[in-house]
Backbone:
């Protein structure tokens, strides 16, 4: 296939820059501890300095892969499919989620919301970043809000973001892994003082799994 043809298919969401795909245990948020198949899509320009998958940022380093092949692989492993990145909303997610739905699969997304919401999702985990704030409607659609806490100023940011989501959205504060030893006690105190929030931990890292 010619390069221009591939780029056109990527633009349409019929191919995606696939970084990796794997079957594991969801480690974070509301669905932690449950089995899920993860599709990690390359491409992100949000630029979080503490990002633990910076290798996902450059979409050009990840092979454009047919969504038919992605869906075929996913359907072999789990009823729950988690699309993550990178920033998956960099790309049109409508074709991928439509294809997943033809297999009766549950579609979850983990996103900063930095781009327009596309796709049909059973669960939206919105994890906003200061560098590039979420766009519009996703605040009202999000099922969970997950704010990464790196320093004390992130609590202020968390409250600003919580004020924008729908009343049924579950609110999580998650320590940034590299500073977890010093920030976890602050999160615990904050949640005890503000019980509308819950603590989310990256349990997959404690379990030493992907």
Residues:
């Amino acid at each position: 296939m010619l390069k221009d043809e591939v780029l056109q298919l990527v633009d349409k969401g019929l191919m995606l820059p696939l970084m990796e795909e794997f079957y594991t245990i969801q480690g974070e948020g509301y669905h932690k501890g449950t089995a899920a198949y993860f599709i990690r899509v390359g491409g992100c320009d949000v630029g979080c300095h503490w990002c633990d998958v910076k290798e996902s940022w450059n979409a050009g380093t990840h092979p454009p892969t047919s969504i038919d092949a992605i869906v075929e692989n996913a359907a072999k492993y789990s009823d729950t499919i988690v699309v993550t990145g990178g920033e998956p909303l960099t790309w049109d997610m409508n074709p991928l989620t439509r294809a997943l739905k033809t297999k009766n699969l549950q579609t979850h997304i983990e996103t900063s919301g930095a781009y327009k919401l596309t796709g049909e999702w059973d669960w939206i985990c919105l994890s906003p970043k200061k560098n590039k704030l979420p766009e519009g409607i996703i605040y009202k659609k999000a099922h969970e809000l997950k704010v990464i806490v790196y320093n004390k100023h992130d609590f202020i940011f968390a409250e600003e973001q919580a004020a924008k989501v729908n009343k049924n959205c579950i609110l999580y504060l998650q320590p940034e892994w590299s500073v977890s030893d010093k920030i976890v006690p602050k999160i615990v105190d904050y949640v005890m003082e503000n019980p509308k929030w819950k603590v989310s931990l990256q349990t997959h890292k404690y379990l030493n799994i992907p």
